[in-house]
Amino acid sequence: MLALDLGGTKILAVLVSRDGHIIDSERRPTLATEGPPRVIERLFGAVDSLLERGGLDLSQLDSISIAAAGAINYEEGIVTLSPNLPGWRNIPLRDMVRERYGIEVFLMRDANAAALGEQRYGAGRGAHHLIYLTVSTGIGGGIIIDGKGYIGHSGGAGEIGHITIDVNGPVCSCGNKGCLEMLASGAAVAREARRRITAGERSALTEMVSSNIEAITAEYVGAAARANDRLAQDVIAQAANYLGVGLVNIVNIFNPELVIIGGGLAKLGDLLLEPARQVVMARAFPMAAQAVRIVPAALGDDAGVLGAALFARSRGEPPK
Amino acid sequence: MLALDLGGTKILAVLVSRDGHIIDSERRPTLATEGPPRVIERLFGAVDSLLERGGLDLSQLDSISIAAAGAINYEEGIVTLSPNLPGWRNIPLRDMVRERYGIEVFLMRDANAAALGEQRYGAGRGAHHLIYLTVSTGIGGGIIIDGKGYIGHSGGAGEIGHITIDVNGPVCSCGNKGCLEMLASGAAVAREARRRITAGERSALTEMVSSNIEAITAEYVGAAARANDRLAQDVIAQAANYLGVGLVNIVNIFNPELVIIGGGLAKLGDLLLEPARQVVMARAFPMAAQAVRIVPAALGDDAGVLGAALFARSRGEPPK
Q1: Fewer Cβ neighbours under 10 Å: the N or C end of chain B?
Q2: Are residues A154 and B242, on separate chains, in Cβ contact within 8 Å?
């Protein structure tokens, strides 16, 4: 089975065995700003390399399954809109890939795929009601109810990064205000560090980027925090607090048994998760707060392709 | 079948036919401040009256089913905590009613019951993914996924009134901050009107309550708004805006096909719902915003008992 993850920064193409082992993989940068046609060419390029390297021809594959960053029309196989893929608006990706390779293609939203992957093979094994959150440049969510992926009435469920937690907060690229993503994502961490340094605060970060403040990323902030830089620690504590507030909302709504946190910012581990857990214990309903475990993801970048493969195996129905 | 709704202000006991018709009903004030033993006595009194008036004996009933305002431990049949029922903490209501009447008893959370009732008999007929919100003194929620009531891992799902929409907002009785309930409930409407009048603003409300500002309720504010009182209209518009923000969160998370709004404040109709719908159209993800209908509840106070009856009929499993 061939599975793809089309993200805002990278394309990952893998061959997956029936039991969820990745046999071979091919990774390319998305270079999303070049627009859909070039990105799709690179996607094809990754698939072609994988086929060639494996000495495979298409008759040996049942299908190609794609997890894509964006809002997906599941019935039509269309990427309707993607904040992280400029120019992607109503792109019929499923049919385009099917025409190119002549085999069946499945298309799903990346966070839904990652939730399925983690549930079957990763940190969510055995859990029935779980929420997967990817905290990286943006914040995405995938919902598993009763062991099944939940995509909502028209495939758009799980936009947990775009719940308002500060009604008077900054305007988000989605058009909403005070979204969790504006306050607790990797982009938010980098933005807040840059803002405070530009306002005159001192931090080891300034030296780390040779005074090129715009070059500060969440990774730099994380590194500085680990090296005991006070400003970096403050900024991460603030993001962790906001993340905790978002988790309170999730816990009070879903009373899940498990919340899995993946994505780049989650690599901070307990520096991010422990304060967030404390907010949940302090502010969520006690019964629900005590019931939930909040854990890091286990599969890293592979969660999406593994979930996409499961989706294809269940013929496009959310797999149990 | 005998079904009960134990709320913060009233107890409703009904006899329900198998096809969901209410044959007879008995209503009593809860007088919740008198504490659990007296409230439970009144609950028994309502049941006894209903049995007596119908000339029924217990052998003619399969079971008694109760929808209660509060957090419920479904497995043990316990009201673990109830913000609207002072003193209710780990009250084994199911066993107490079973001991009294000697027949099977089911216990569930009231908003979950109302969601089931509306889905089967009311505004939610035919919908598979729906959210029920009761907007009265507080705000409660019930979630229907794939046609089934969703109660979460330990029975606590649906506390949609207690999602933070203003991270810097006022402290809620639940311990969280800036909860939807603190900003968009009937209590919030009354509180805000009282605050503004106490601060010196003029309103027809002052005369309506003979200058006894503490007597202002959401009902008065609604009546004043309909009579074109500017302050009352402002206060309701503000609550409707906050309600809209809460609905944006629900729509972005669940992508539901339907949101049903019940409870006392919903009697304001489009004065409340229309501005809230506009916030959803302006701020939620377009695909999800376009997919959802936001409608008033159809069953009024009967939704809870009808849902409780369905719950009993499915032997305590969330009915399809």
Answers
A1: C
A2: no
